[in-house]
# Entry
Amino acid sequence: MSIIGRNLLKVAVARPNVPTISIIPVRFRSTKHWNPKWKKLRGLKVQKLDLPDFHKDKDMKDLPNMSAEEVRSFFKERGMQPTRPWRERDMFLTSTRSIFESYVPPEGDGKVSVLSKEGVAQQLSFLKKKTNSWKAVRKIREYEDGFELYPNFVDEAQDCYIKAHQALAEKDKEKLLDYVTEHAYGFMIEGMDNKTFRWNFIKSLEAPKVVHARETSAITDNNIFAQLTVRFHTQQTLAIYDRFGRLMYGSEVVAKDVLEYVVFEKHIINVYGKWRIHDKIIPDWMPPREPLPKTQVIPSGPTQAESTPEVATAQVSTPEVATAQVSTPQEKPAVSS
# Structure
């Protein structure tokens, strides 16, 4: 109670005949706007909406039985967007998208002798990187009992390498996916639609050797992929013909020595997984390969090559006409005389 109210109360008690004044405390709202002019418009800023209750609305349960037009009008009356059907899609990872920790081939590999200075330096660098490779091999053995690099895996890798190129030569795309991953499939069939591919494996100049091994997890820690890089030094024949049967590259008779570093990959946590070709390592110091010559259909109709002989014939006959014109002036003086 305020001070004025207390004084009036004392006066009323001291003098009973004096009329009392009752004071009622009033509290005004502090959030009230000082200008009531736009009160109505400010009230329209907040509107009440009837939100649908999916558990109590009986019409929502009948949506599966409604036609497309009834569903559209149902949501349009309520001013809502139609709900999208929930669709779950399975995702199955069979291969990775690239090479993790790619192996770097030493420059001059296949040409440098092991007993030379460069050959000894290559062997020392190989031993330094061998520690991480053996860790990856031990990880593979945790999921694959009895896994051995030599000779089990090496023989399997060489057999996979040969069958993959034979399937490519036969253009058997379904069989090719049994030996290459989805990552390598697009690179192998690129530009081979209108071409004939002839490939033949002759022999191995050196035994296949595993030079690099790595493992990594994708998305989750238990989803593990393993990659092994195998060095192939073989002798092969390769010939590529265009759609007209013309030789574009290589030869079916001349054999060439080929040194390749092929990466094999396997989803090791998959019981039914198998080693497949994943990619091929091309070192930076390797010279670029010449592009294949492109062929095309010659358009029908007269061409410049066909019209050239006709022009040449006309030019050859010109001297005869000139000779006839030269002989004419000699006859005119004889007639005049």
